[in-house]
Design brief:
Largest sheet: none
Number of helices: 6
Oligomer: single chain
Radius of gyration: 21 Å
Distance between the termini: 44 Å
Number of strands: 0
Strand content: under 5%
C-alpha cells in the first residue's frame, strides 16, 4: 500500500506546518523542474511562514523548538535530537561517576580522559531545558491570546 496520512483532528493552527510541508511536497512532486523536496527546508520554510501568521507573539526559535519536539511520529527534529544526545551524555556521566565513586583513583583517571565533566554536561542540559521550557511558555501565551481574541 502507498499513500499519505494527515491528521487534521487538532486545532487548525497546529496543522499549519504539516499541511504546508505536505503542500510543498505535492507541488514539487508535480513540478520536478521547480526542484526536489527537502524535508528540513520545507519544515523551516513552513515554520517561518507560520511565525508571520502568529504576528510575532512567539519567537521563531521557540516555534522551531516546538516543531522539532513534535517533528514526526518516528523521528525527532534537530533541536529535540540534540536535546536527547545531551540528556544521554549527562546520564552516562552520572552513571560513570556513580560506578567509579568507589574507586577514587579510577574516577580521577576517567574524569581526565572524558573531556566533559558532569558539571559541564549538567549546564548544557539545563540550558537546553530552559530553552524548551521557554518555547512552550511562549506557545501557551500565544494560544491564550488567540483564545481571548476569539471570545
Amino acid at each position: 500500500l502507498g499513500g499519505v496520512l494527515l491528521n487534521p483532528n487538532t486545532e487548525a493552527m497546529l496543522n499549519y506546518v504539516p499541511l504546508h510541508t505536505f503542500a510543498q511536497w505535492v507541488r514539487l512532486s508535480l513540478s520536478p523542474s521547480e526542484g526536489s523536496y527537502v524535508e528540513t527546508i520545507a519544515c523551516r520554510t513552513a515554520v517561518a511562514e507560520w511565525h508571520q501568521t502568529l504576528g510575532g507573539h512567539i519567537s521563531i526559535e521557540s516555534l522551531q523548538a516546538i516543531v522539532d519536539t513534535l517533528y514526526l511520529p518516528h523521528e525527532h527534529g534537530p533541536f529535540a535530537a540534540e536535546y536527547i544526545v545531551a540528556l544521554e551524555n549527562f546520564l552516562s556521566l552520572v552513571q560513570e561517576e556513580t560506578l567509579l565513586a568507589s574507586d577514587s583513583k579510577n574516577a580521577v583517571t576517567s574524569a581526565k580522559n572524558s573531556g566533559c565533566t558532569l558539571k559541564d554536561a549538567a549546564a548544557d542540559l539545563k540550558q537546553r531545558a530552559v530553552c524548551l521550557s521557554g518555547a512552550y511558555e511562549e506557545w501557551v501565551t500565544v494560544t491564550d491570546l488567540r483564545t481571548m481574541a476569539a471570545l
